[in-house]
Amino acid sequence: MALGKDYASQDCSIARALEVIGERWTLLVIRDALYGVRRYNDFLVHLGIPRAVLAARLQALTAEGILEKRRYQESPPREEYVITERGIALFPTLRSLGLWGREHFDEAQRRRFEHVDCGTELGPYGECPACGKVVPVADVLMVPGPGLDPEPADPVSRALLAPRRLLEPIGTTV
C-alpha cells in the first residue's frame, strides 16, 4: 500500500501539526527565525537549502501564520520574515527536540540557552530551574557551546557566535 501524502484520515492534533511543520526543512527555518534570521539570503546561506524549497517553506509558514512577511526596504522592494507568536510558541518543542538529539546521538553541545535575568541554563521546556518559571523567548540568551565550530564559513553562523538574545535580528550583509 502506498504511503499517503497527508494525514487527512488521522483525527489527531499531532498529525495536523505535522501537516504544517513536519517537512524536513521547516523546523530548521523556524529555528533560524528564532535565532534572529529574517532575510531570504541569510536563510539560504545558513541552511544550505535549495532556493525553490526555501521559497516554498517561507510561503507555507507565512500562510500558516508562523512567519510574517514585512517590507524593510522600498527601493528596490525587499522583505524579511519575522517569526510570529504562533511560531515563537514552537520554541519548547524545538528545545526539547534539540536536547533529545544531543542525548541520543552523542552530540557535543553547540549552544546553551540561558535565562537573561539570572544566567541559569534553561530546562528542557524553556523553564528556568533557578527562578521556577517558564522564560519568555525574548528573555532567552543563546550562548555558543563547546561543540560549535569557532570559525564557520558563512556570515550567519559567524553572527551567531556571539551570545545573543533569541528573536534579535541578526545583521549580515549576505
- Sketch the topology as an H/E string, one letter per element: HHHHEEHHEEEEHE
Shape: globular
Q: Radius of gyration, rounded?
A: 17 Å
Q: What is the rounded distance between the termini?
A: 46 Å
Strand content: 15-25%
Average pLDDT confidence is: 91
Helix content: 25-40%
Q: Major sheet: order of its strands?
A: 3-6-7
Account of the protein in words:
The protein contains 7 helices and 7 strands; from the N terminus they run H-H-H-H-E-E-H-H-E-E-E-E-H-E. The protein is globular and about 40 Å long. The strands form 3 sheets. A 3-stranded antiparallel beta sheet has the order 3-6-7, with no helix packed on it. The chain has helices at 13-21, 26-35, 40-47, 51-63, 85-88, 91-104, 155-159; strands spanning 67-73, 78-83, 111-115, 127-128, 133-134, 140-144, 164-165. It is an alpha+beta fold and 174 residues long. Strand 4 (127-128) and strand 5 form a beta hairpin.
